[in-house]
User: Which sequence fits this backbone?
């Protein structure tokens, strides 16, 4: 079954331009076998499809052959009862062929849907395992395109291309055999004109492929524009920079390009169809002429019925020839789709659960960084020789100028990235040797750009602990200082948070995310403090919420406020990826170094507030 497909693929590549040839994927056995793997579980159904296609294609040719007998024996032979029988038979055969075709399309759709169901699941599962870096460096639109249109493309391949090759080949072969049986000379005559439409077919195949690619690109561009401008933040950006007009122009241009392409694409088909229509009418005319000549002048055994059958078969033959001549474009396109999908399937997650992973029963929460180095890109160290020990139940504040590597450092603990050199360990176990699930269960993070998904507050909280009871939710929210706010909402815990939680203020979002982390109850808590986006009341509420949390578990605080910094057992001062100073506030402030500078520029202005919040916690 794979043979003709490979064959067509190889033959087809000749019709593509140089550029398209280089871009076209190689149809290799490995690729075909791999595609075969996805079909394998459905081989029984595929065999059924094969059987039904064969049956319906063969039966489909039969009425044309019966026409000959209807004319010769029924009409010319003036045998009415035979005529009725033949007409009924012809009708019955057509009915049967169409009935089988319906069954075939049902099984085929079922198989195609199930194969893409499997592929979508595999892809989503794969995407969930891919590392953080994959998501920070890939375009979200591209990823979604793979998930949606690429996989749907595959579905149409299975549904269309494969069956089209099969049914058209069968129809063609049956029609050819029948034609040659009737009269080989006339059959040859009919076939002679095939090259007449094979040439325009080649040209259309060529332009169709490159037009499809262009349409695809232009589609991507429009999607990109929509994605960027119609998101909440994108819209805000457009409004605040009053770029509506230029965004509109951008969109209009892309839209115009797309419209032109669409017109070209459909026109390419029109000219093609016109040529084909003209050529396909020449064929029958030729047969009438030559057949008539043989019948009238040469006194052959050929009958009127035979000529009619030949004409009918010839017309029936053109469609499959025409389809098979352009199908290579679909085959190459589908191979490209499979190749794109398989590229994703083959991606190795950078951070993986190790083999023989260690799974401690209880995590105490001692974090040690041992000569840790880290680079996002080879040769560009973002962290250099980071060395510290954070004992269970203690807390560390990391301070430093923006871009000094604070977030990078904490991201190494739950293995969002792996160290370039050195070691990060939790309870004495290298995090790379620990079961990833256990590790990530033990680390809770409250980040600056809190992410709440579009749903209710309750749903967002339950994300951390699906089985949590209402009491547990309320308890966590009370600790996070957000319960009163939630209770005051008309819908209470069922209040919807809006797209990315944008219906809530920054402080409310952050306190909900603190409640979420409290529900998770991790051994190690990482808190990335918001820099300046919060007002002092919100800050105080957050401060009140995190102070007891910090006291009760191992905590790492990326801190910008003196109150938080002073609450920590140790302060690490980071500059350009290195710990340049460490100690407690009093020691550091007198050193006249980076900390003193930070203190004077960043923390100092908050001094009044510290005293206030210091007394409240
Ligand atoms: P901080 O949290 O102290 O502001 P970060 O840890 O976010 O600093 O960043 C440290 C450095 O690493 C910066 O120079 C930043 O540009 C770079 N960086 C951060 N994230 C990435 C990333 N995903 N890919 C490449 N470089 C990054």
Assistant:
């Amino acid at each position: 079954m794979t043979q003709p497909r490979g064959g067509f693929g190889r033959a087809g590549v000749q019709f593509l331009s140089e550029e398209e040839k280089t871009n076209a994927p190689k149809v290799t056995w490995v690729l075909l076998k791999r595609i075969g793997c996805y079909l394998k579980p459905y081989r029984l159904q595929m065999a059924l499809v094969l059987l039904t296609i064969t049956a319906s294609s063969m039966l489909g040719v039969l009425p044309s052959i019966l026409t000959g007998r209807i004319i010769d024996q029924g009409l010319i032979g003036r045998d009415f009862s035979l005529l009725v029988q033949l007409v009924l038979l012809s009708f019955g055969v057509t009915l049967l062929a169409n009935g089988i075709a319906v069954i075939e399309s049902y099984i085929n759709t079922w198989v195609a849907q199930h194969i893409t169901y499997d592929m979508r699941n595999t892809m989503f599962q794969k995407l969930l395992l891919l590392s953080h870096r994959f998501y920070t460096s890939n375009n979200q639109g591209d990823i979604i395109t793979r998930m949606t249109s690429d996989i749907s493309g595959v579905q149409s391949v299975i549904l269309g291309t494969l069956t089209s090759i099969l049914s058209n080949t069968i129809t063609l072969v049956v029609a050819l055999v029948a034609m040659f049986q009737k009269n080989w000379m006339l059959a040859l005559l009919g076939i002679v004109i095939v090259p007449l439409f094979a040439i325009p077919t080649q040209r259309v195949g060529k332009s169709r492929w490159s037009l499809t690619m262009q349409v695809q690109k232009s589609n991507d561009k429009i999607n990109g524009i929509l994605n960027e401008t119609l998101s909440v933040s994108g819209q805000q950006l457009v409004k605040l920079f009053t770029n509506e007009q230029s965004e509109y122009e951008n969109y209009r241009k892309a839209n115009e390009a797309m419209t032109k392409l669409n017109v070209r694409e459909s026109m390419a088909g029109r000219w093609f169809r016109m040529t084909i229509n003209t050529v396909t009418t020449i064929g029958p005319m030729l047969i009438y002429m030559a057949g008539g000549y043989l019948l009238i002048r040469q006194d052959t055994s050929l009958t009127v019925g035979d000529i009619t059958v030949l004409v009918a078969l010839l017309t029936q033959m053109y469609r499959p020839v025409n389809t098979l001549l352009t199908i290579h474009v679909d085959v190459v396109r589908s191979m490209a789709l499979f190749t794109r999908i398989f590229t994703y399937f083959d991606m190795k997650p950078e951070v993986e659960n190790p083999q023989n992973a260690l799974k401690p029963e209880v995590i105490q929460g001692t974090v040690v960084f041992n000569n840790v180095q880290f680079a996002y890109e080879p040769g560009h160290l973002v962290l250099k020789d980071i060395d510290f020990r954070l004992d269970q139940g203690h807390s560390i504040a990391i301070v430093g100028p923006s871009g000094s590597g604070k977030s990078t450092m904490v991201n190494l603990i739950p293995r969002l990235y792996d160290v370039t050199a050195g070691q990060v360990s939790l309870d004495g176990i290298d995090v790379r040797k620990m079961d990833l699930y256990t590790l990530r269960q033990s680390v809770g993070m409250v980040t600056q750009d809190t992410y709440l998904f579009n749903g209710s507050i309750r749903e967002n909280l339950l994300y951390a602990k699906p089985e949590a009871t209402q009491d547990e939710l309320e308890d966590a929210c009370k600790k996070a200082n957000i319960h009163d706010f939630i209770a005051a909402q008309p819908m209470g815990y069922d209040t919807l948070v809006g797209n990315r939680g944008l219906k809530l203020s920054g402080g409310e979002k952050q306190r909900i995310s603190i409640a979420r982390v409290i529900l998770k109850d991790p051994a190690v808590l990482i808190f990335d403090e918001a820099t300046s986006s919060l007002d002092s009341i919100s800050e105080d509420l957050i401060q009140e919420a995190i102070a007891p949390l910090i006291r009760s578990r191992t905590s790492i605080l990326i801190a910008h406020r003196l109150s938080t910094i002073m609450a920590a057992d140790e302060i690490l001062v980071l500059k350009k990826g290195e710990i340049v100073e460490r100690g407690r506030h009093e020691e550091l402030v007198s050193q006249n170094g980076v900390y003193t500078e930070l203190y004077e520029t960043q923390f100092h202005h908050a001094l009044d507030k510290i005293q206030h919040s210091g007394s409240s916690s």
